[in-house]
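Case study.
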Amino acid sequence: MRILVVEDEKKVAKALRDGLEAERYEVRVASTGEEGFFLVNHESFDLVVLDLMLPRHSGIEVLTTLRKRGLETPVLILTAKDTIDDRVHGLDSGADDYLVKPFAFPELLARVRALLRRGRPDQVLKLEEGDLAMDLVTRKVVRAGETLELTVKEFEMLEYLMRHAGRVVSREMLARDVWHVTARATPLDNVIDVTIARLRRKVDDPFETKLLHTVRGVGFALRSERSEPG
Amino acid sequence: MRFVAPSVRARLTLWHAGVLALVVCVFSAGVLLIVRARLYRELDQQIGHDLAAIEKVYREEAGDLGKLALRMGSTRFEVAEGETVLYRTPGWPPSGTTSVRTGTLADASHRVTAARDETALRETLWTLAVIFAMGVPCAVGLAIGGGYFLAGRVLAPVGAIAEAARKITAESLTARLPVQNPRDEFGRLASVMNDTLARLHEAFEELRRFTADASHELRTPLTAMRSVGEVALARSPNEKAYREAIGSMLEEVDRLTRLVENLLTLTRADSGRVPLVREVVDLGGLAASVSESLRVLAEEKEQILEVATAAHVDADCDPAILRQGLVNLLHNAIKYTPTGGAIRVVVRAAPSGGAAIEVTDTGPGIPAMHRDRIFDRFYRIDSGRSRDTGGVGLGLSIARWAVEANGGRIELESEEGKGSTFRIVLSQVP
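After joint prediction, the assembly is written out as follows.
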């Protein structure tokens, strides 16, 4: 999978490249709109990560020209402005998704995965991780043969974690996708932490192997192997 | 090109003088006309007397007309019967350089015509006209001079106000404009401008305080990140310690991010750029949903969280923004109420006729001295304690904005040691 990153801020560009390469994507970085435009026209990419505030040409300009040329590569825009207008403007110009800076890296990875997966059906009825199994139809959660009683929110949270099993999930992602709260100024972090603690009591406490891990400063991860997060 | 007088003073003077000139001209013309009419009437009366006397002499003793002519002096006359002239004073008919006025008395048999010299009358009128012609410019000149002087005196406060206002900058907003007479127009103007300055000064002060507080709040996580990073680099030999350090730094980044988000929310609110999507909102439903999402926090502290809807109350507001306000209030209540306390959310029709959501807690209460400032940005009752409980001191500011943006207000009742009630009052949908 080839990803083009158009970002003028060198540190952010390097972090994006390293982070995406660690996930085994092939990454090209362009530091200006022109360069990005050139690369998109001469090479083929599966995804473009586009910063909106670029020197000389704005990301929106690049995006509009790109779409006019009939290129349908999915585009994920990064923006430091998060008013509704900016988002709508970006999506109207042909972007497939957006992320507001500063973003959590796990969230970027989740969006990238979602965009690359797009078009393929995602009809999962059962989720499994180690000895933990979740039936999405009967909404039953079983670990090592024991049925776990979860509240609605705990179930939704566990489902989200299992869908992103093996990867880190940030609090922002949980707030938006599980609690459906978009206003980032809303204090939900405590609620998330408490819910995680309760989930852990039910899912992990009675068992030897721990599945729910806290990645300090980043978020949470559900994984069955013992290795430290990498 | 239109002529534009350079100053109010000049314009005032010109108007003043123009109007005066017009009035004086009209007056002079009127006087001239009246005097002229009067003088001519008198002359005509004299001629009438003359004619009567001539008529009388003609009827009684026609031969004495010559004597009469001598007696009458300057009046010249002619008496004729048909085409034949009976008597004519020397120099008849009057002609040449002297202007005269004539009168005629006639019947079928005879005709008497008399003429009097009107040179004196014309001279009188002429003298009067000359006096006016010279007096009017003098009067107008005086009016211009006096008007200019007076306008200058009257407008002097404006100059003083302008001069004082020119010296006022953002740094000297405490200065005030001179008010010479608070009851006159300029005094009122200066007072109004002073009030504006006072408000401006207050706004600047608030901004200054806000900036200072904000930079302090921003500096705290930055300091933490810096020291954690530096210490880790200087002495941590193993990966686990590095991991710890990076995690700790990321936590500070989180805090910083949240702070910036909050500041952005408030900045956007200040500039009025948050569009409201108004709809009819069932406040009971909103209160229940907010309470449900925060219930885990209350349960964690073994608090009782109750929602009571006294009546079905609808309000016209933006549900997302109002929700944010209510979340902040309830979050605060849970945070500051000790373990085992109780929090009650009540939805009811407000006594004042609106809709109300009350959040009542059994927390420590808010001392009276803090109640006015509790909604101020970054204001904390106890700065030492608040940092550990999280938050940056913007929650209530945002809550107040969220409610006020929806046309409502937040009321606070509190009793120290017993608890507080925050009441959101909105206008109800009829």
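Observations recorded in class. Chain A touches chain B through 26 residues (CB under 8 Å). Chain A has a mean pLDDT of 85. We will return to this complex in the next lecture.
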